[in-house]
Please model this.
Amino acid sequence: MNRNVIITGGSKGIGRACVEAFLKQGDTVVFCDLDESTSAECLSELMPLGNLYFFPCDISNYDSVREFFVKVSNVLPSIDILVNNAAIQIVSDFKSIEIDDWNRVIQTNLNGTFFCIKEVSNYMKSGSIINMSSLYSEGVRLNKFSYDASKAAVRRMTEEFALALAPNIRVNAIEPGAVYTPMNHEFNQKAVEEKVISRIPLNRIAQAADIAKSVIYLCSEDASYITGVSLKVDGGRHLL
Model:
C-alpha cells in the first residue's frame, strides 16, 4: 500500500503489533517510545519487514512532540495515518491516589493524544487517526481512576476531532477489552486469567494482534465512510 504511518508507544504490546501489521501491509512506519531498549529490539526484529524508523518522544511533553514531528517530516514526504497508542496506567485505591500520579496519567494519555493530533494536523492533508481508548471509557471499575477517566475523555475527543478534521481526515477510536500486554502482566497469573476469561463471551483474552487487525481495518478503504466511532474489540465483554 505504501502509506506513511506514525505509531506512538510502538515498541511493545498493542503498539508493536500495529507496527508489525502495517509493515506487513507494505506501509512505511515511524514509531516513538520512551523505552529505548525495547525500541531497539523492535527495530532489530521488525526492520526486515519493511521501512521502519524510530525516534524517541515523550508525548506528555508538547515540545518533545513538536520535535518528533519535525524529525518525522525529514524522513517522510507526507503522513497518512496516526495511531495514538502510547499510554500509562497507575493502579491505586481512591484514598491512596497521589496527585502527581494522577497528573502524569492524564498528561500522557489525554494531553499526549491531543498534542499528537494537534501536531499531525500540520502535516496530514488527508488520512486516518486512530486513538486507543478502552472498554472502560464507559464501564465502571475501581482503582484505575485516572486511566479510565483519561480514556473516557479520549473517546469524546475522538468524536469532536472527527467533526473538526472532516472531511479529509477520519478520526476513530478502538476500545480494547482484556489484552495480553506488558501493561496487563497480571493476566499471566492463572487464577486471574481464568477469572477474566469467565467474563468474556468469546472465551479468551485478546492477543495484541487482534487489536492491530481492527486498527488496520479502520485505516483501510473499506472503512472510508466511518469516522467518529469507538469500536469495541473486547470479545463481547461489554455485554456482561
User: Anything to note?
Assistant: The mean pLDDT is 96. The two ends are 39 Å apart (CA to CA). The first strand starts at residue 4 and ends at 8.
